Amino acid sequence: MTTATAAAAAPKTMKRVAAARFFAPLLKLRNGDFSAAVERVRQLPEIFYCRLGPRRVVYINDAALMEALLVKNHKHYHKDSGYDALRRVLGNGLLTSEDAFHLRQRRMIQPAFHKKRVDNYAACMVDYAERMARGWQDGSRLDIHHEMMNVTLSIIGKTMFNAEVGAEAARVSEALETVLRYSERYVINAVGNFFDMLPIESTRSVHHALATLDTEMYRIIDEHRASGKDTGDLLSMLLQAQYEDDGTGMSNEQLRDECITLFLAGHETTAIALSWTWYLLSQHPEIEARLHEELDAVLQGRSATAEDVERLAFTRRVFTESMRLYPPAFGFGRQAIRDNSLEGYAIRKGDNMVASPYMMQRLPQYFEQPDTFDPDRWLPERSAQLPKFAYFPFGGGVRKCVGEAFAWMEGILLVATVAQHWKMRLAPDARIAFDPKVTLRPRYGMPMFVEKR
What is the spatial distance between Cα 261 and Cα 235, in angstroms, rounded to a whole number? Predict the structure, then answer.
């Protein structure tokens, strides 16, 4: 082996950063302040590690390395222990399952989100958005985050279960909200198990919520299975789907896990993305005016349709840029299940890998003026050279969100439907901060005054 070849094959050196230097700014995240963490991450290398007891915590700060983690080397990693909390709620659904079983489930579920089927949901999305907006009064003060949670709940209830929100979907949503509120205590299994034995209010609430989730989901599944009809909803599609290898369908238990996973992803994350979109538009009236111009020109007063999604180019750029600045899934973790090389960096079995779309999507090496809300950065001529994993609000690789097409359509159609007739102004006393638990919720809601156009 030549000297040059040997040098090329040598592992790259990963810099160690003092745990206090990295983790100190992260403590402010719990209070809803990301600014210190963003500034710290911008000062650090493309990849580095900290010691946390006997474990290495490896942080990825580079698009090429992110692609290697999520795509090229994905077989060497599992979800980290932080997902144990979600497994208590979601079971063994797409978000929490691993390896061959996860791939089998994804292949089974993917056809439910093919474009033709998703396009059929457009009318439902617009209908519920119009119903919501018709109930508003000019000049009234509303918690827009609450409004977005309600309308996306209505949409997912109808498209997933063919159910009106007043019944099944509302009970499922309330139970999910309760369990997620206390999910952090299950990050360490021993701690969660200890709390589960205590006769305290939070434990009673969690147990009641989990029982409600099971009762509601199994009842809905049983009713759909008994009818034997395809009513056009996602659950009907999943009931008819068969595994390629043996021709069987999903058990009720697996349907329960997948439906709760899809319900959470299709309800909360879109509502959060929309809430931050309205906030950004309220702070940038010149961008809001351009949005209104496009809607007036394309829609000309009529309701939006699936065909309009491709025509509403600026609306899409607004929603894209909103998810760059405020991705609902703001961070995630992986754990190495075996030694491997990540683009030349030696990763050891047991290493905890940490990544954050929120941080990555604000790096100045990828985005000029990264803290500025600029939808035109997504014009083709400006975004063409952007590395693929500089922007990844839906994840990537085999773990990429299976309902991404559904989310894009819902986000664009809801922005178009509401902004066609309404403006929003942030209330002067509004407190804007994050509630970074599972998702990037606005901690104090999003109080706004709505104005009729």
Answer: 12
